[in-house]
Write a structure and sequence with these properties.
Layout lengths: L2 H10 L2 H9 L4 H29 L2 H8 L2 E2 H8 L3 H13 L3 E4 L3 E4 L1 H7 L2 H17 L2 H6 L4 H5 L13 H25 L7 E5 L5 H9 L4 E6 L1 H13 L6 E5 L13 E5 L7 H14 L5 E6 L8 H15 L7 H10 L4 E5 L8 E6 L1
Parallel strand pairs: 4-5, 4-7, 5-6, 7-8
Antiparallel strand pairs: 1-3, 2-3, 8-10, 9-10
Length: about 375
């Protein structure tokens, strides 16, 4: 530990200095802000459970449709005791999920409205129940025990992902499709896919991303590949959207099976961080071999060390992927290193409107 860091920590850990900082006019705002940060670290799990309760009860939707409602009205609608429901409602107001209306009324708050405008976020909140169970004993998780999240993402620990049945892939495919619309819009606003001839989306799920591309780029030839049971579900989904003849869907394992050739743009949307380095490097190398001389690979996902989202990258995704049993959060620098090892030479970041949710790297052959 450096001398400066040692002296800093000794000073900040001193009760005498903390009392001084809390009362001295120039340091008081900083001390109060840091106190709030420390308390939020302690209370963060409670906040997530308040949010989860609101989503699971569909309280936000109820207030959007019928609000404002009184405590007694809500107790009847939600079948909960008034005194206990009041605790949840006050907590939701404090977190700006709800607003108070008069002495006894409650309505949808600003953050609640934002959540309802993003179905993918509410789907992830429901899904997080599994993650919370795995985090109940973080030391057990760190010791390498089995997790509920690993069972949910069936392909993560499977020796034969291509052999999974529809039941094993259905839930996570639906979850990813729900949250894909916003991500697709951010990607397509950042990179001009229409400049290419043919796009191949690997790990395309139910086809939400290629469907969004089809709308934005009507002249672009499109195809996608995912595990056979996912691909079959994608065909049904795309046909229902009138895109059955527009998008070629291939069933296969992108990490093991031959990749379709002919595309001059390959996309990996929220795929890379789900897999370990050796598997990622092998996949990138195979993609490089399948691309023509003028081809490009687009990687889109949240990245570690993103300014303003450092905690999300290494704390949230670090533990989520640990519980999932596969993958790791990676910085732009680490992704660029893997791309260069795979044979890509020209790598550029395309700025997105919300880098906290997704960043885009484009690598050319």
């Amino acid at each position: 530990m450096s001398t400066f860091r040692r002296l800093r920590n000794r000073l900040l850990g001193s009760p005498r200095f903390q009392r001084f900082a809390a009362t001295f006019p120039l340091t008081r705002p900083i001390a109060r802000r840091q106190s709030r940060v420390l308390f939020d670290l302690c209370a963060g799990f409670v906040y997530t459970q308040v949010l989860y309760a609101c989503v699971k009860l569909e309280l936000l939707t109820l207030l959007e449709l019928r609000g404002p409602l009184t405590l007694s009205d809500l107790a009847v609608e939600l079948d909960l005791p008034q005194d206990r429901l009041a605790v949840l409602l006050r907590a939701a107001v404090a977190l700006q999920l709800l607003d108070r209306c008069g002495a006894d009324g409650f309505d949808l708050g600003a953050r609640g409205a934002m959540l309802l405008g993003n179905p993918g976020a509410t789907a992830m909140i429901r899904h997080h129940a599994l993650f919370y169970q795995d985090l109940a004993d973080p030391l057990a998780l760190l010791s390498g025990g089995g997790t509920d999240l690993a069972s949910y993402w069936g392909y993560a620990g499977s020796d034969d992902p291509g052999g999974l049945d529809a039941t094993a892939v259905g839930a996570y495919s639906e979850l990813m499709a729900t949250s894909q619309t916003l991500i697709a819009d951010l990607i397509l606003s950042a990179y001009p896919c229409h400049r290419h001839r043919r796009l191949l989306d690997l790990g395309g799920g139910l086809g939400a991303f290629v469907a969004a591309v089809a709308e934005r780029c009507p002249k672009l030839a499109l195809e996608m590949l995912d595990l056979p049971p996912v691909a079959e579900a994608a065909r049904i989904s795309l046909k229902a959207r009138g895109l059955g003849d527009r998008i070629d869907v291939h069933g296969g394992d992108a990490f093991r099976d031959p990749l379709p050739t002919g595309a001059d743009l390959v996309t990996l949307v929220r795929i890379v961080h789900d897999h370990d380095d050796a598997a990622v490097l092998a996949l990138l190398t195979r993609i490089r071999a399948a691309l023509p001389a003028s081809g490009a690979l687009l990687i889109a996902e949240p990245m570690a060390e993103t300014r303003g989202a450092e905690a999300m990258g290494d704390a949230y995704f670090g533990f989520y992927l640990l519980a999932m049993g596969s993958g790791r959060p990676r910085s732009r620098a680490r992704l660029e290193q893997l791309l260069r090892e795979a044979g890509f030479r020209r790598i550029r970041e395309q700025r997105t409107a919300n880098p906290l949710l997704v960043r885009v790297l484009v690598a050319r052959t």
